[in-house]
Write a structure and sequence with these properties.
By secondary structure, this protein is mainly beta. The chain contains seven helices and 28 strands.
Length: 494
Amino acid sequence: MKISSQMKPIFLAVALVSGVFLCARSTAQNESVNQGQSSADSVHASPFDFTTYRTQIEPIFLKERPGHARCYGCHTLSNRIFHLEALLPGSSEWTPDQSRHNFDNVVQLAEPGQPASSKLLLHPLSPEAGGDAFHSGGRQFASQNDPDWMVLADWVRNAGHPANTDLAGMTRIYVTNSAGDTIDVIYAATNKVVQVIHGIELPHGIAFSPDGSRVYVSNESESVLDVVDRKSGEILKKVALTGRPNNIAITPDGKRVLVGIRAQSGFIDVIDTETLTNTKSIPVNGSVHNVYVTPDGKFAVSGSIENKAATVVDLQTDQVIWGLKFDHAVRPMTFETNPDGSTRRIFVQLSNFHGFAVVDFAKRAEVARIHLPTPAKPFGTEEGRAATPSHGIAVSPEGGALWVNSTFANAIFKYSLPDLKLVGYARLPEVHPSRYVVSGSVPEWITFGQEGKTVYVSNSAAGSVSVIDTRTLREVALVPVGEVPKRINTLTLH
């Protein structure tokens, strides 16, 4: 395919923004320390919590990690930037006064609310996991999922940030880390992670109660729907499912959560949110990869990879009313509405097709296919994703644009609606792993910030979320998250 001159810049090499810059402490804080401020005063003024430091952080520096010397062994030397006090003879922990001195040194290496910019976290982290190139104390943490590293990250993340406040209008972006056991919560006003929900291994789909008090997560490892308290992040209940789940959806009234079950011959489990029980299973055509509720709340639509089919269910009767077969496996879908809110078209991504199919909802038929611009040397092969050239598609909140991810182009494309004209694109980060060729970020899912001014893309190969300005088509932030981020959804509190 010939590439227009307009599209050529997308295929030039782009340096990956690592997002791991060490920021300087503020001038005011440095001056206060240089003027001889007492340890007690500095602890009081610090945005970091000293009690958490002493009870949860400091023990990590004394911990014996298999194959590693303790942090304490090296960092008691006087020439270390990160200096720890020497333990008193016969003591296995620091005195309160020693802990305060340690605290003063530690916080100089940590940026409040920014684990990805904190030397305390980056220096001992393996380079393959996003850490510094070399640490004379070795690779203390092989992964950002290391429990001790996560304790450090949570302490830094919560420092001086309104993470647990409950202000109206706060837009949060929830990201399920599909190869881990965490869910990252990004505060859209700052594009920083302000909360991490722990304890759900292989989290998949995510949805919210209308009032924002609950978060629903499909849990692949246990085949349950986890019901999570949004404020505390605690799991309130595990609702048993009929099989291993994939994506989920919730009805507009919040009364039912629909869970796609990834097993033949195909079911949608229906969870009553008042009783938190699995009330029924609706049979559909094929193992369910994704399930959606149309914007008007009248229909559920499931997609099957194995059966290459989409199935439409009437939510008044919970009966299948029509379906559509494709020549390739069905991937993500999104919906365009008529002026009265009813469904006009479904845009469907397919395996082995770099673009999307257009389905007329009233005609119950595919009416067009749109090809995305394809580079001469596409990404995807090195990443093992050649069969999924385009994954992630969404209609903007105001309905005026369609956004489509491209693995091949390592970009997100914007099309105008209803005419489906290409408006432009935004490039996504490249990944530069050692010993391997440069690869793409493997974009997966799309959601929007408040009022649709930004679009968020989960980069599964890069362990990050790109934040794109929907007007300028420029990346305005790159947010490091957990292991293989995929499903992504927006919660705005009113």
